[in-house]
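Quick one, T. Sequence first:
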Amino acid sequence: MAILDCRDTQISLWQEGSAFHSPGFVMLEGSEYHFGQTALEQSRLKPRDTNSRFWWQLSTQPLKPALGAARHTADLVHSHLRHIHATSGAPSALVLAVPDSMPKEQLSLLLGVAQASDFTVAGLVSRSVLIASNSPILSKTGRAIHLETQLNQTIINELQAEDGKLRVVRSTPLPSCGLLALQERCVSAIASAFIQQTRFDPRRSASSEQDLYNQLPGILAMLRERGEASVDIDGHRSRITASSLASASERLIQGLEQSRQAMDVPILLDPELHLLPGIEALKGETNTLATHALWDAFTSQRQHIELSGEDLHLVDQLPPLGSEAQPRGTPGEAHKQVASNVPTAAPSTEPTASPGQATHVLIGTLALPLRDEQVPLAGGFSLRRADGYWTLHGDGALINGMPSTPQQPLSLGDTLSLGTAGHGRLIEVQS
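Structure tokens:
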């Protein structure tokens, strides 16, 4: 069984412990749509041909401004779903994990769009309830706040466990605090530093501005790790400090502090917020969700979510499993099982031929075979084999848009961000 995480910052199709990620961006080129990372990385170059609101504004109202043959945002969501489904190996059935901020009208429309796609919808669940139900922090107070980041808004989801069921008791949107707005504040501060230090404005041209946005996740990861970063744009170099970007989180923190009713309620942060400079000023206990938190929760709760032979309805209450959940930062049982299936014998010098495993890394149009113990990539990055799996190495390396952790195993379909050297993806080449 597979589950589709419908949060537009990173629409993710999870199956067997690995995922295909596709941000909620679409770009029109001629008569063809490009979705996800490809559209995101050209959105500043072709702003009139790009849309990043179609998941948030899902409807059947005429699309304004027009974008190709799509009549409305529902057409774009349908095309994006088909793209993700086909690219992920076309699983026959999917559970949909949806944000609690989605109104009933949009939820019904999404279900109709999904049912018109090439897969069966086997369940519908609140993603905040699902993620929080598997968190050990609920065992402390029975309450939690999930700070859910979307492209165009951030939602404060307040959760409470009563009578053996966990549910969202209140959802509060924070306007102008979506991921795009937070990134805009960070980019503005970085651009100011460039102007002060070099008299060069990286936003003076679309290409240099796009380069800065593409580098931003790596810059924020380095700031989180070291407190400062050296950034190169068009041959100009500037030193950036975490403190100079700390104001980017002020509005978000202020909105949360005004909304929360008690300081002893722990906060669950989506991974993108962990990198936001100044977020450490949040008061109280904070816990950053692992990128695989939703999959781990699904493997624990699937018997309460999958609906066989029943009318589909939103599962918005689940039994909390916090006492049985994995500690934060450790893989769930599904990840342990995947690791245990990896052969421990000496690695072959030929690409792995087992179905469902990566054999090559695709850099642009060049597919490099995964051979020997190390595969050099551009820009000082490399892939290394350890204990039967591959890991990514290099300063500012990102996996699926998030900073890589030491010895993080790579999976088939993972996207690798290599700074100015571009991007790669782990693929399987069948002979």
